[in-house]
Amino acid sequence: MSLHSPWRADFPGILALEAEGQTYLDSAATAQKPQAVLDSLLAYYRNGCANVHRAQHLPGERATRAFERCREQVSEYLNAPSAGQIIFTHGATSAFNLLAYGLEHLFRPGDELVISALEHHANLLPWQQLAIRQNLKLVVLPLDQSGRIDLDQAAQLIGPRTRLLAISQLSNVIGCWQPVAELLRMAKTRGALTVVDGAQGVVHGRHDMQKLDCDFYVFSSHKLYGPDGVGVLYGKPAALAKLKHWQFGGEMVQVADYQLAKFNPAPLGFEAGTPPVSSVLALGATLDYLNQLDPQAVEAYEQALHQQLMSGFAARDHITLLGEPNIALASFVVDGVHHTDLAQLLTEQGIAVRAGQHCAMPLMKQLGLSGAIRVSLGLYNDGTDLERFFSALDSALDILR
Fold first, then answer.
1. What is the pLDDT of residue 396?
2. pLDDT in tens, 39-55
3. 392: which residues sit within 8 A by CB, 6+ positions away?
4. Do 193 and 235 meet the contact criterion of CB atoms below 8 Å apart?
5. Correct CATH for 8-32+294-400 of 1.10.340.30, 3.40.50.2300, 3.40.50.300, 3.90.1150.10
6. Residue 283 and residue 33: Cα distance in Å, rounded?
């Protein structure tokens, strides 16, 4: 019996794509948006938009109240102790750069920054460039055969010179949950700061900051069924206090004259300039939508999609999955077939998947691959989508093999 998503009708974009013959299987890159998000964006502009925090007039006060209510919503969603621990950025990439520049003053030549072999460029390049600027050592934790960070080797590599650990909860390539709790414990025994990339993980329910207990947590709205242009940086108070300001302009200033200035602490001190007000408000609408869903039903449905995806791959020869995916996201290669050729034939049949290196070039090099095909599913996908995908895959492989 084919899976049917109880939430599919909430996403007009997925219905529009379906109407034009497109099957969207690229949610890890960006997710479709529920109607509530579209309504929020339109309402902000239609009802009279205004800038936040700097106006005494009614439209400005109204926008500011709504904006700060969204900060509270994000805090509640993450189970963070305080809304003051939530900084709005322009995306996860912006948040990682904020951290790399804001923490730069803490490190000395020879200190070690630790990442893993599977990191997205957003959680690699800011630390790589920081290491180059400050003559630090960038340590890369290797993976085991399943695609998980190897804990035995991590215990050897996280050492007395480790000053920061930055790792992903869930790989955007392999679709495998990482042993974050164990790695955070290792780093904390060394007194290192800890950063968790939640861009993929936050979508699938593991985002309780008081349980996770990392110093910083980062995610993007657009992967969480929300609008683009906004990201979130959560930090513990003591960790936020270590950040130096890195962007300067309006809003973040307490006092300024021509020669000197004093800046606000977090969060406003790290939100220089006009923030993405409409996107922040729409993120609040996204969280309202997600909060009214039954989390057990969501988890069960995601696992059912995952099982159907895995069964489809297992039924076909000459397909190799990257690692051992355990969520509705998987990357694969086909013996003797180039991924770009396969992606083109899938595209011609209306199948929207991701092909390439998935912003993880070093990982692909380590795997000895020039690229791979990735299938990633959202709440709106159903069994029919997967049936279409596998039918198109079979047709493409009949041509290519």
1. 98
2. 999 999 999 999 999 88
3. 23, 345, 346, 349, 350, 351
4. no
5. 3.90.1150.10
6. 10
pLDDT category of residue 85 using cuts at 50, 70 and 90: very high
Fold: same for 8-32+294-400 and 38-291: no
Query: pTM of the entire structure?
Result: 0.97
Residue labelled with tokens 């794509």 = 17
Dist. CA 270–CA 369, nearest whole Å: 39
Other beta carbons within 10 Å of 380: 24
CB 230 within 8 A of CB 279: yes
User: Can you point out the beta strands (E) in 183-225?
Assistant: 193-197, 216-220
Q: In 124-227, which ranges are E strands?
A: 137-141, 162-168, 193-197, 216-220
Residue spans of the domains in the chain: they are 8-32+294-400, 38-291
* Contact (Cβ atoms closer than 8 angstroms) between residue 232 and residue 87: yes
Q: Which fold would CATH assign to domain 38-291?
A: Aspartate Aminotransferase; domain 2 (3.40.640)
Tell me the sheet residues that pair with 330.
Answer: 375
Instruction: Give 97-142 pLDDT, tens digit per residue.
Output: 999 999 999 999 999 999 999 999 999 999 999 999 999 999 999 9
User: Torsions phi, psi of 390, nearest 5?
Assistant: -70, -35
Question: Kind of pairing, strands 351-352 and 23-24?
Answer: parallel
**Radius of gyration for the alpha carbons in the chain, expressed in angstroms and rounded:** 22
User: Mind listing the pLDDT tens digit for each residue in 289-306?
Assistant: 999 999 999 999 999 999
Nearest 10 degrees: CA dihedral of 299, 198, 180, 298? 0
What pLDDT, on the 0 to 100 scale, is given for residue 1?
58
Q: How far is the first Cα of the chain from the last one, in angstroms, to the nearest whole number?
A: 31
Q: What distance in Å separates the CA atoms of residue 107 and residue 118, rounded to the nearest whole number? A: 24
Q: Is-catalytic flag, 359? A: yes
CB 305 within 8 A of CB 377: yes
pLDDT at 206: 82
